[in-house]
């Protein structure tokens, strides 16, 4: 199968306390699969990571997992991926995920998810890529972060143009459609290999 598009999903290796997060991960994976797409993700089978991968696969989508050696056992590397890449470092993992994706979306997660989101957003700001970046704000999970980001603009540490480089939404299909439409409108020249 040659996928029509490729979306990188950042999300937690834990399921979280609220069922809405697992439901959102299922919705994202199902949408990718049902629309002929490919999931690029961190390669684990635990938590929301495992949920989004299984939902993509069950809906007929292609799954590409990228995981560093140090996390193969901890995050239980997913042998059901169509491609499972075991790499040496987190930096290599993130760069490969970036290269393989047309767009990026962050679901609920912890410090690793935050770091991946902020790095890919920073890379866009610096011109390493110009691919769309989104935040799925399920059950208000990112409300306080988005408020803080707005405060950083008010305080003069960021500009409105930086905030315009990331979208947020609460409905999975709508946000994914927006990201994919933006990616298709503007074919992207990608320089992510330069940050390796």
From TrEMBL:
InterPro entries: LOG, LOG_fam. The keyword rRNA-binding does not apply. It is an enzyme of class 3 (hydrolase). Its EC number is 3.2.2.n1. It comes from Variovorax rhizosphaerae. Keywords: Cytokinin biosynthesis, Hydrolase. The keyword Hydrolase applies. It holds the Pfam family Lysine_decarbox. It catalyses: AMP + H2O = D-ribose 5-phosphate + adenine. This is Cytokinin riboside 5'-monophosphate phosphoribohydrolase. Belongs to the LOG family.
